[in-house]
Amino acid sequence: MAKQTRYLVYFYENTDYHRDTKFFKKGFKHCGVITYDPENKVWILLEYIFGHLLLETIPEDKVDIIFRMFQMKHGRVLEGDIKPRNTRFPSIMGSWIKEHSCVSYVQRILGLNKWWIFTPYQLYCALKKLNFREIDL
Hints:
Distance between the termini: 28 Å
Number of strands: 6
């Protein structure tokens, strides 16, 4: 499989009302990544949810269900290319400063090393600065 560089990062309002997310910005309670594998003609969905890393392959003809779900949850989807970047701050700091969350897993998938990003909205803003663009659902 070719190395993926183009990603769709999605954000939506999670309805489980977990105590840790009650202070998050409305509409930005959860995030995940979806990408396309042209060789196998499948979409790959990756997210960290309820303490589990979920990896799901979705056939081309079924992916519209996922995008409808994002739309029903008033989600936002950013599209962009990622190039690995290094920060001057040691990467070991990111692992002990913040807990394992959907945000930290999305950052790892994208190859970002930004220890100061804790919430889905902060990740959204950081990706916009990296020229990710919002797509219409």
